[in-house]
């Protein structure tokens, strides 16, 4: 279980840090350009390798091309859900390992205690306390190993889940800004058209 957990941890660290899913700097620059009415420059700041920039790119392109808002929102929801599910991939096995490791440790302890007491019963009146304590020591070792695996896995799992939640919030915020803030150029051109 520790080998599987470590493998998943390495995969997830690569997934979270090689192309950082948030793309915070690119998103900030892109949204600033979008608010200034520079849609082409805003779109040029984004890439499809990172989760938030990829969905934001789709939102900006759809908004700029005048795609039906309902269809665009549905497509954005579909793509965002797919991207977030990719980030959540393998988190469930980590949770299972975190739950099972201490239970397997306890199972090992119980089985070890059973063997220790069977040996004590077989020895009859010639019980040597060192034999009994040696068996108990070995039995308790499995619980310690189970906890040693479970504790870091629980911490890593919680951290990764929180990271996915932050990415989802960042994604929601960025896309909402595209829909709620009109670029300056389109606002001013609308005012000129109304004045005419």
From TrEMBL:
Subcellular location: Cell membrane; Membrane
Spans traversing the lipid bilayer: 96-116, 136-156
Bilayer disposition of the protein: Multi-pass membrane protein
Example of a GO biological process term: protein import
Assigned keywords, A-Z: Cell membrane, Membrane, Protein transport, Transmembrane, Transmembrane helix, Transport
GO CC aspect terms: plasma membrane
Domain of life where this protein originates: Bacteria
Chief location: membrane
Pfam families to which the protein is assigned, alphabetical: MotA_ExbB
Ranges of residues in domain MotA/TolQ/ExbB proton channel: 59-171
InterPro entries: ExbB/TolQ_transport (IPR050790), MotA_ExbB_proton_chnl (IPR002898)
PANTHER family: BIOPOLYMER TRANSPORT PROTEIN EXBB, PROTEIN TOLQ
UniProt similarity note: Belongs to the exbB/tolQ family.
Stated name of the protein: MotA/TolQ/ExbB proton channel family protein
